[in-house]
Amino acid sequence: MADERLIAALDFHTLEDVKELVNTLGDSVSYYKVGMELFYSVGSEVVTWLRGEGKEVFLDLKLHDIPNTVASGLCSLMDLGASILNVHASGGYTMMKTAADRLHEEAAKRGIACPKLIAVTVLTSINQEDWEGLGHELQIKSAVVRYAKLAKKAGLDGVVASPQEAALIREACGPDFLIVTPGVRPAGASADDQSRIATPAKALEAGASHLVIGRPIRAAKDPKAAAEAILKEMESVR
Ligand SMILES: O=c1ccn([C@@H]2O[C@H](COP(=O)(O)O)[C@@H](O)[C@H]2O)c(=O)[nH]1
Question: Hey, which of 177, 218, 231, 234 has its CA 20 to 30 A from 205?
Fold first, then answer.
């Protein structure tokens, strides 16, 4: 049976590829992530198709702009039926608060369930050297916790972070805060372009609420077997 803590990333650019993977994974996976590559190529049709198949959707478009533009953009996306939408925490407290407030107001006005809103802290591809190259003085871990606390104060439901920061965020933001972690790799798998990684079991033990996993499933010779091995590892952490 599907474990809703696993979100498989659909980084494709055609609906045919999406259908093939989703049909192959069948009932094993119930939650999917639609990111920029897919949404920019296919548009909202992919979200409608996934919802029609009974799947939950994390629409990972990482909005990053001035407060009014981000809030308005989210309001344009909220009717699609995604369970989670997101923004970049580096857009600042005012942007996050405006976005969360407007999303809640609009959901009440339209009489629909409000999607969860989460903030990307520091991309999981960024290592300490990249980070310092951007002029940041805090350690990545400290910056991530700072962004997570700001997101919580702004009324967001959670964050995207690496599994390496999950325990610190859980401690700082409490048991109900969503901690969605990409950068998850089964032992021995290639890290690809990810820098701050951990295995599925370690990510859950550290307090992640959801694991986003793309290439280890999508690029596997047998994606269903790869997903089931990950689900088996996840089962040991409840
Ligand atoms: O910090 C972040 C935020 C988002 N992502 C997205 O997650 C998946 C990860 O895919 P893999 O193939 O498992 O590396 C991908 O869609 C990213 O856009 C992230 O990796 N890090």
Answer: 218
